[in-house]
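Researcher: Please predict.
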Amino acid sequence: MARIFIIVSGLLGFSGVALGAFGAHGLQSRLGALPDAVKRLDWWNTAAHYHLTHALALALAAWLVHRGAGASALVAGGAFVAGVALFSGSLYLMAVTGHTKLGVITPFGGLFFLVGWGAIMVAGWGLGAGS
């Protein structure tokens, strides 16, 4: 599973950089004339920030899986992937479409991020006992 997490981490990192660059260049010119352009670009930037941050967090989870940290490392990795999909994904869609009702999904992604970080703490605690 560590291998899969590393591959997905790379995919998330790659796509996060690409989407961040698109937001800074392509999206800005497309949304510039809209009255809510600043808000939409802010949503996009927030999505890209958390997307990239949790690509790295997934790599940490992969390392913990590789070190034998147990089920909590697996939970962390899965939670980070779900968090990026729900949190960043909903914000990307809101930015592109302007449909703010998608914002009801965003907190669930944030909850997955919190679960992931909590699981990282548990995995780290387990590593300390055996070191």
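Model: The two ends are 22 Å apart (CA to CA).
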